[in-house]
Amino acid sequence: MSALKSGFVGDNSVMEADCLGNRDRRHLRKALRALTAMCLLGLATQAQSTCSRPYTAVVSQLGYTAFQDDNGQLRGIVVDVFHELAQRSGCQITIEDMPAPRVSAMMGANQIAMLGLAAPLRNPSPNDIYIPLRAATIDLIIRSEYGAKTPNAAFTNPRVIFGTLRGASYGGWADNYLRSLPEKRREPTDSIRSIYRKLAIGRVGATFGFAEVYRLHVDEMRLGNQLRIVPIPEAPRAIGGILINSGIVDMADAKLLQRTLEMIRDDGSLRRITAQYLGDAKARDELWRKDRDGSNNQ
């Protein structure tokens, strides 16, 4: 409060106030009292805006959403979001990298407090709080020599073999197209990295992917000049966000974390974080928006 007093009611301010009429002095005192009350309320709110206990947030490595850099440090869009969440909320959050199969098992056993980047649950429980962050569009990634500027040009070219991730779904639009292809034009692979290795040597000619996933492999393998990215605006967007389990996280803490995540999404911070990895155009376009992408519960 000393800084507030010296900045607003020091000697110079009082001298200037003495030159005013009684009515103006009363208005000045009211304004100062209101400002002081606001500052005290802000300090009290800040002091209370911390979690009651530490929590663990789980991520799985997938493209630029979460990855290990050359120094073995965990980085990525969702990792940076959890760091920002911890800093803003004052909560102690430990980030744990966990393989996707283990995540599925622990989710089934109700053992994960926070998860990102997560798709909306089909059958959420009353304890599940979902905060959508991104609404990603799927792209066609195709070797440049085929000259395809539209998805249809790739599908109608019998020479283009599509690399696919075994057991994965690319969403209804892409899945329907892939099912329409003869088996000899589909090459299933056990990892996303393997698909891009095959793209690099021309063993497959195309695949589908989301920017936060394929950009990492394109950058690491320096494939930018060999590939063309073809947007598919008619394909539905895939929603990704943070899932909070209020059965594990104290409800008051869960609400604090929810509010803070929504602020990170809506005040430009998420766009700034995403732009570091995907560029500003993609970060801006794929930011979740309620008017375009629906309610928080989808």
Automatic annotation (TrEMBL):
It comes from the Bacteria. SUPFAM superfamilies: Periplasmic binding protein-like II. This is Transporter substrate-binding domain-containing protein.
